[in-house]
Amino acid sequence: MKNLAEQLCVYATGRPxxxxxxxxINGIVDRxxxxxxxxxxxxxxxxxxxxxLPIGPPDNADSTANARSMDWTLDTPLPVG
Length: 81
Fold this sequence. Notes:
single chain, mainly alpha, 4 helices
């Protein structure tokens, strides 16, 4: 799971994962495993991770909390066709 998380982060950000990123990668993997370890959960955790937060103070401190509160959509079936 850790390797897949690292590869998704490399693909999504366009830069290699560095030594300083290992804490965030471990957090992504831990949160994903708590949700059952699915690929959909992993992608969601990558997108709401610190890799995609703006640099500097956030305009809205609840932005990450709001993104994480949408976890209920992870179990919602995708519409077909």
